[in-house]
Automatic annotation (TrEMBL):
InterPro entries: TPM_dom. PANTHER family: UPF0603 PROTEIN YGCG. This is Membrane protein. Residues 234-271 are annotated as: Disordered. It comes from the Bacteria. It comes from Microvirga vignae.
Length: 271
């Protein structure tokens, strides 16, 4: 029997709405992994894969020569890639899967490094192979991005930023990491100091609110004032952050990866 106001009809509409929402959610979880599997990556045609056309031919050639000389001397495989789009994924996910697709570095050493630039999303990533994580740490990678690469990118100087980042990476890999280590330590000290200040402010705010509550508890009308004073808002320091921020293909031209892999070491940034 249908009651006044059409209550069963309204209830049925809500049930159908919930079913539709559940179906949409299920389809999302089915097709999102499929989209990731069908993602396409540029072929590995050399040590510089500039699909976003950020570099002039002579700049690409000079960078290619520099990276080849380093690989011939050390076997470390450093590759620079620019892409027009991250295709809806994070720069961390895209870089890691591109690294694995290209298999950068030697298989037994996992000594590959990928410098990825995505100008449309204004993202940059240094992805480090397992074997080089001890030399090019996450902290050093972050410092390279924030102090060498991003400042040039902010000026629109992509070639200068890529060159500065590459030079810093090669410098660290050849054992000249002292100046970059100092920058990393300075950045950690600054971050630690800021965290201490934020923690102090949060504690002071809580103590102040508790003090106000205790003082006002015995006063006439205190209950009404507390109810009308609004919610407490504790700052979380969300304006500060510490961090950051493709299996087997090869390209033409006689160049390919050596079978290396990465577990996600490195750092990301934006400009």
């Amino acid at each position: 029997m249908t009651s006044a106001g059409g209550f069963p009809s309204a209830l049925g509409g809500q049930v159908r709405l919930h079913h539709a929402a559940a179906l949409v959610l299920a389809l999302f979880f089915v097709f999102w992994p499929l989209a990731a599997l069908t993602q396409t990556f540029p072929p590995l045609t050399g040590r510089v894969v500039d699909t976003a056309d950020l570099l002039k031919p002579e700049e690409r050639a000079a960078l290619e020569s520099k990276l080849k000389a380093h690989e011939d001397k050390t076997s470390d495989q450093v590759v620079v890639a620019t892409v027009r789009s991250l295709e809806g994924t994070s720069v961390e996910d895209y870089a890691n899967r591109l690294f694995r697709t290209w298999q950068l570095g030697q298989k037994k050493n996992n000594n590959g490094i990928l410098l990825l630039v995505a100008p449309n999303e204004r993202k940059v990533r240094i992805e480090v192979g397992y074997g080089l994580e001890g030399a090019l740490t996450d902290a050093l990678s972050k410092v390279i991005i924030t102090t060498a690469i991003a400042p040039q990118f902010q000026k629109g100087n992509f070639a200068g930023g890529i060159e500065a980042g590459t030079d810093a990476i090669l410098s660290i890999l050849t054992g000249d990491a002292e100046q970059w280590q100092r920058r990393a330590e300075l950045r950690e000290d600054q971050t630690s100091s800021m965290d201490t200040i934020i923690t102090f402010l949060i504690i002071a705010f809580i103590v102040f609110q508790v003090y106000r509550a205790i003082r006002g508890a015995g006063r006439p009308g205190a209950y009404r004032r507390r109810r009308s004073s609004g919610p407490w808002i504790i700052p979380t320091g969300g304006g500060w952050s510490g961090g950051g921020g493709w299996s087997g293909g090869s390209g033409g031209g006689g160049f390919s990866g050596g079978g290396g892999s990465s577990g996600g070491g490195g750092a990301s940034g934006s400009w």
